[in-house]
């Protein structure tokens, strides 16, 4: 992940100063433990200022509105209490070439600041610190005790101290190429490393882009550069310094990330705020998506293994209970042939009542025939009672396995992060598992409405133009089937296979063609656990014939009056590849 360096921070803060100052603070919201947003209003516009101290993605930029769910963080509440209604009147660097911004707040423009919000963009040491006008720390995103850092502790009530100053040389437009070249090449080494160690304000991403823009290799030794190479590199160096001095930036996408200087740009972006917001939101979402998907998959795997072991134990007990009739038959035979018993016998062979086949019965020699028969009757009764107790337990475990396999299938279908909808679908699965008590509340933050479901279904169009909606998880499946489906729609699902609920939306009087039905069946097969099969049985019926059993878990549905089609998941996959 590309970090916000001095150049990017300067470009972003310059743009904010030009377009968003002064602005009144209307709201403060904390998205997560590394990210707050300030709701700002100017005379022309209203927006949200993202401030993050994430160790890999610390930044400041104008971003998206926060979600509509409660903010439970104390840090944001403390900032809101102090800054609500005040004006953001200035954003300044605390010193030249430092990646620390001083956001100044006053009652109105032109007055002295009442509060300072220091935003320290320094990698894993990033922080956000609120101080009073006298520099006393009111609150900090991350408190740093003297035991953690004897050089610069950060604690409430203590005076705010600037981070230690950098020791590298300060870049200057007035510096000659000869002097600059001498500094960079003083200790021979890789060009990238020498530039970073020689001057302030440089970063790996900046230097790599600068060197490649000069048609050089960042890893080549300074000893291999020709006079022409040095001249080209110095020109790029001067371009960088001029862009900083004149605040003339060219934001855009590169093959590996983004640039604010136009170097290696493959697609320009008009607004640097949008560039930073899109880049870091997408990467952090992707990172969260991968972690969450792995956590949920592992949790389900462990749960299913335990449940399968329990189901196997119950099945073994049921198999043993099937011998109850055998023991009763043996007891009946023994009672019918008491005269055949002799003292001390350990077994006796008697003819079966119906077939006449010989039946060997094990006996306890210390008991007489009647006592042995009573023992067999007792054993038979015990096994029958066990069957009555175990059968409902096995049915319950099998239902639980079927439900979790349905959840597992939903996760398997969300293979990669493409859009915010993919992450949202995974979060809904996590919240569903919390609600069903498979995850602890303390592990994750519960939504404000535990029963709510997003409507970011998979959406496609059939050959005749009818809308096709496909649930991404059990919550969406339930919403699709039992709340959204209309009287004229058709409901599809892979037959007795975990998978998504699929809804073919039809207007009154509309009749789908055979191609529409097959298209829908193909997608119902594709979004099922049998995605890799050549053909998958798919049932479809009217929504009024689909119902949820009382007390059933999310995503579970029964149906009747169904018709059968054979879905071809490869056809749906080919269609998706063609769309992409």
Q: What does this entry look like structurally?
A:
There is one protein chain. This protein is of the alpha+beta class. It folds into four domains: 6-159, ibrinogen binding protein from staphylococcus aureus domain (ibrinogen binding protein from staphylococcus aureus fold, Roll); 177-269, Helicase, Ruva Protein, domain 3; 291-412, Orthogonal Bundle (Helix Hairpins); 458-577, no CATH class. It contains 13 helices and 22 strands. The strands form five sheets. Strands 4-3-2-1-5-6-7-8-9 form a nine-stranded antiparallel beta sheet, sandwiched between helices. Helix 12 (514-526) packs across helix 13. Residues 443-450 have low confidence and may be disordered. Belongs to the NEMF family.
CATH superfamily of the largest domain: ibrinogen binding protein from staphylococcus aureus domain
The 3D shape can be described as: elongated
Main sheet overview: 9 strands, antiparallel
Strand order of the largest sheet: 4-3-2-1-5-6-7-8-9
Give me the count of strands: 22
Distance between the termini: 25 Å
Q: Low-confidence segments, ≥5 residues, pLDDT <50?
A: 443-450
Count up the domains: 4
Gyration radius from CA atoms, angstroms: 36 Å
Name the helicity range.
25-40%
Strand fraction band? Answer: 15-25%
Please tally the helical runs, counting DSSP H or I stretches of 4 or more residues.
13
The CATH architecture of the largest domain: Roll
**What is the CATH top level name of the largest domain?**
Mainly Beta
Structural class: alpha+beta
Mean pLDDT: 92
According to CATH, what is the topology of the largest domain?
ibrinogen binding protein from staphylococcus aureus fold
């Amino acid at each position: 992940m590309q970090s916000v360096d001095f150049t990017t921070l300067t470009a972003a803060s310059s743009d904010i100063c030009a377009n968003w100052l002064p602005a009144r603070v209307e709201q403060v919201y904390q998205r997560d433990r590394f990210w707050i947003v300030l709701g700002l209003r100017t005379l022309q516009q209203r927006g949200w200022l993202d401030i993050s101290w994430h160790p890999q993605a610390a930044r400041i930029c104008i971003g998206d509105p926060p979600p509509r769910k409660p903010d439970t963080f104390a840090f944001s509440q403390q900032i809101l209490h102090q800054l609500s209604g005040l004006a953001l009147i200035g954003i300044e660097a605390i010193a030249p070439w430092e990646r620390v911004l001083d956001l100044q707040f006053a009652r109105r423009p032109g007055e002295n600041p009442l509060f300072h919000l220091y935003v320290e963009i320094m990698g894993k040491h990033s922080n956000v610190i609120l101080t009073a006008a006298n520099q006393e720390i009111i609150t900090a995103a991350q408190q740093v005790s003297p035991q953690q850092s004897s050089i610069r502790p950060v604690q409430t009530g203590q005076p705010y101290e600037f981070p230690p100053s950098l020791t590298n040389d300060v870049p200057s437009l007035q510096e000659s190429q000869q002097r600059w070249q001498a500094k960079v090449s003083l200790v021979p080494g890789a060009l990238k490393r020498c530039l970073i160690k020689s001057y302030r304000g440089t970063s790996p991403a900046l230097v790599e882009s600068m060197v490649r823009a000069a048609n050089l290799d960042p890893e080549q030794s300074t000893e291999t550069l020709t006079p022409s190479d040095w001249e080209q590199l110095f020109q790029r160096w001067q371009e960088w310094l001029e862009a900083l001095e004149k605040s003339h930036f060219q934001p855009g996408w590169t093959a590996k990330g983004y640039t604010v200087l136009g170097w290696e740009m493959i697609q320009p972006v008009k607004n640097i705020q949008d560039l930073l917001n899109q880049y870091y939101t997408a990467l952090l979402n992707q990172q969260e998506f991968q972690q969450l998907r792995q956590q949920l998959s592992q949790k389900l795997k462990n749960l299913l293994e335990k449940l399968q072991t329990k189901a196997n134990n119950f099945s073994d007990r049921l198999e043993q209970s099937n011998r109850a009739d055998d023991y009763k038959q043996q007891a009946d035979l023994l009672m019918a042939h008491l005269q055949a018993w002799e003292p001390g016998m350990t077994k006796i062979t008697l003819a079966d009542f119906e077939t006449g086949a010989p039946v060997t019965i094990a006996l306890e020699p210390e008991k007489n025939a009647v006592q042995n028969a009573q023992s067999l009757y007792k054993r038979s009764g015990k096994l029958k009672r066990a069957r009555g107790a175990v059968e409902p337990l096995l049915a319950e475990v099998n239902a639980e396995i079927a439900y979790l396999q349905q959840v597992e299938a939903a996760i398997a279908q969300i293979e990669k992060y493409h859009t915010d909808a993919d992450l949202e679908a995974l979060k809904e699965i996590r919240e569903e598992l919390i609600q069903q008590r498979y995850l602890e509340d303390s592990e994750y933050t519960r939504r404000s409405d535990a029963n709510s479901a997003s409507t970011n279904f998979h959406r496609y169009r059939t050959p005749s133009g009818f809308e096709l909606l496909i649930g991404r998880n059990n919550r969406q499946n339930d919403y699709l089937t039992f709340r959204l489906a209309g009287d004229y729609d058709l409901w599809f699902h892979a037959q007795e296979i975990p998978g998504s609920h699929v809804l073919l939306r039809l207007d009154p009087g509309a009749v789908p063609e055979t191609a529409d039905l097959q298209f829908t069946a193909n997608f119902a097969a594709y979004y099922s656990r049998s995605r890799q099969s050549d053909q998958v049985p798919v049932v479809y019926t009217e929504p009024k014939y689909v119902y949820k059993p009382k007390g059933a878990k999310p995503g579970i549905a029964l149906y009747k009056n169904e018709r059968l089609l054979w879905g071809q998941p490869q056809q749906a996959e080919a269609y998706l590849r063609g769309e992409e």
